[in-house]
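Troubleshooting log. The previous run stalled partway through. Resubmitting the same two chains, unchanged.
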Amino acid sequence: MIWLAWRQFRWQALTAAVATVLAAAWLLYLGGDIRDAHSAALSSCRTRPGCPQAMADFQARYRETMLYIAAGLGLGLALLGTFWGGPLVARELEAGTHRLVWNQSVTRRHWLATRLLLTVLAAAVVAAIVSALVTWAASPVDKSGGNRFGTILFGSRDIAPIGYAVFAVTLGTVIGLLVRRTLPAIAITLAAFIAIQFLVPNLVRPHLMPAKTATMPMTTEAVNHARNLGSVTGGPVIGGITLPDEPDAWISATSPLLTSDDRPLSTARFNHCLSSPPKTGTRGTFGDTAACLGKLNLHLKITYQPATRYWTFQLLETAFYLLLSALLATFALWRIRRHLN
Amino acid sequence: MPHDHSRPPVLQAEGLTKRYGRRRRPALDGVDLTIPPDRVIGLVGPNGAGKSTLLHLACGLTEPTSGSLRVLGSRPAADAAHLSRVGFMAQDAPVYRSFTVAEHLRLGARLNPGWDMAFAERRVREAGLDPSQKAGGLSGGQRAQLALTIAAAKRPDLLIFDEPAAALDPLARQGFLQNLLRFVADLNAAAVLSSHLLADVERVCDHIIVLSDARVQVAGDVKDLLATHRRLPTPHVPEDAELITGSIARFTTPPPATAEAVTLEELVLAYMTRADKATAHAYQEAAR
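Second attempt completed without errors. Output:
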């Protein structure tokens, strides 16, 4: 059975091997590039007083790359699920070859278990290799303040991608088993996996452990440390906050700007500070606006997970996806025996 | 062939019903059937009569909606051991297009503990198949030969063929069916084969089942059926006979010498016609 599973998988395995080698080569190059930039930033720290600026520039230079890598890795894993998992059963049903293979002296469960296990293991290995390289390449950025615990980057580091890969393949297999046609299976798997990858960080991950809360006074300096002010809906919100005493914590929710009586700052007063603040000559990202807001005695309520929980979250999230995969696989093994009409 | 009553029936169905979807008419409707071992059984009936459904149920590819079915004494496809006792050649002889002929034999060897590689290789040679050829490039007849080889080389006790000769031209058909018979004899296996062509079945089977309109219309050994069915000389139906259609009747006692013998084809057609009329009648009733 292992022979057959491998025989039917070898081209997909070869394609993935080539893609992995290309990705690895690029990540090795990127890792070197990041290390060069990092040591340049560090050396400027030693010689000149502009250290914070040099480090901020270093961070800014790779911020987008890190996001692209996270997105690319997520998409790559989605493709594993769609092109490895989706056709695993569906193609047999479509070509009618299930009528050949299911009548050999191997039960359907054994057949599915072997094929699924081989594919899942291969996906896990690919994900582990790429994730290890990403983690290595990004480590100077992560260590010097890039937020690896952040909503988007978290899933492209360490062991979480292994959980995603296993889940993607299992999900694709189950969808293929249910819809029985390869192309719809591929399309549905792609959509479903991407949807889940968006939902879990927002709906599940914040609750894997009870979050901590903190109140953060929004002084002029604190406002200037934020990345963005306001939103398209015009609310008094502030984004890109880092906690001063826990800079690497994952902030899962931020309240709007609150006045001293815990009420949201009125939009009129917020807009006043935003569009026509009194001229004070304050410097920083938001300048006079920051000074205007700083005078209002505002604060934020922040829900966060401390940075020390990073590895707990990696384990919990991976376990969550592995558990989902186990449930899906159990369902598939039950379904393939019972209901194929 | 000698009958061995200590062995379980090849196939035993009780009230076997299969419905695809809740609203549709059943593909099989309360089929009761017992097939004794050591026979070559022909399953005949028009297209859509439920032949494939019955065979798919027999090899466990689908599950009955209600009723029970036992194959060689146990639930179809119950476990690996039972799977190894039943060989199935599906309609259109599905094979892996990207696998070579040799890889198909390897698949058989890897997946069946009782695989007879010498037999399989000899069969492939006799059928004139090139072992290094990809199965996607085989003709319909060659594919059927390959599928037949895979089904037989696991040395099952029961071989099931779903329209095995459908893809073949008349000449290839004859040779193929003869081949198939030889296998069955060599393996000392029972065989069930379905066909919508009575001629195929007549040539190779010693037991037939006429399936029409989701029900078994008649089943029995060919020689018994021929011995009990006669064409009535007059419209009068004797007490020990049941009229099927036209002038063909089944006798429960030895028929009189005056009654004319019928061919298997006439007999089968009589039952199919009766089933057809019953359906038409039922539709008219429903329409009222």
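Takeaways: The first strand of chain B starts at residue 11 and ends at 18. Chain B is about 35% helix and 25% strand.
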